[in-house]
Design brief:
This protein is of the alpha/beta class and 293 residues long. Helix content is 39%, strand content 21%. The protein has one domain: 3-Layer(aba) Sandwich (Rossmann fold). The protein is built from 11 helices and 10 strands.
Length: 293
Amino acid sequence: MTPDLMESMHEVRARHEARLAGQAGESGGDAAFGRLLHAGQPDFTQGVALYLDDITVSFDGFRALNQLSLAINVGELRCIIGPNGAGKTTMMDVITGKTRPDAGKASFGSTIDLLRLRENEIAQIGIGRKFQKPTVYEQLSVFENLELALKADRRARASLFHRLSGEQLDRIGEILTLIHLKGEAQRTAGLLSHGQKQWLEIGMLLMQDPKLLLLDEPVAGMTDEETERTAELFLSLEGRHSLVVVEHDMKFVDQLTEGRKKVTVLHEGSVLAEGRLSEVQANEKVVEVYLGR
Ligand SMILES: Nc1ncnc2c1ncn2[C@@H]1O[C@H](COP(=O)(O)OP(=O)(O)OP(=O)(O)O)[C@@H](O)[C@H]1O
Ligand SMILES: [Mg+2]
């Protein structure tokens, strides 16, 4: 859960409360969703979840992204690797609306122009992002964190002041099992290990059932066992969600790609190589700029 998404969760809650209290005016209530509807629904029938075309981002003349093009298929699990400063996080910033590119196109599915949406709108149409540092509500229990994430989902807004439906309880139970925290449901989130907090945050993102999940260095700081379990978790999400995973941990990438999936190597803001992990690891250019260090 990103700080921004947390903020938007609060916004959604506040808007909903205002609406129920009959105070929602032109600028409150469903205004933001009205804009989304206007932008159309995402269309995944072409098989593409995300499409970046010729994206360039400059910071004071320095090109963090340089004509970057990339396509992620529906249900695909794609690992992105590359040296520090290659532009991996900047790419996620562009997809989530945090950074506006100077040039290029970015679409979600085949119809949604991401460059026309605001950050909270992008989160609401089904793109979830996990930053490196875990951000969960430390004071609340594991269960309450998931409950809050569920209620931030606009499709569940009607139930904000009601008890959770059986279906919603089932969904929370399902996610608790998936993220290996079933036995910790009533535990205060602040008492979890670093790895468990990361899983909880991923679980919070999953409560909103995002079509596309962006995960920036998800296993940094995890123990070997936690890393392995995280790989299993991501593999179980593949298919139902598209995942873009940025990582430096090659053992983890190897486990995720299962010897066959495509890996993308970024360098100086562009794609340097793409192919199976074993192929890019044998690529001289890749060894020179990254793996051989
Ligand atoms: N807001 C910003 N202002 C100026 N320069 C920036 C900004 N954000 C990123 N950069 C620069 O853009 C380049 C790409 O950074 P980015 O964080 O995307 O790299 P990365 O591939 O995620 O690296 P790492 O593996 O270290 O996380 C770096 O040189 C970085 O210093
Ligand atoms: Mg980064």
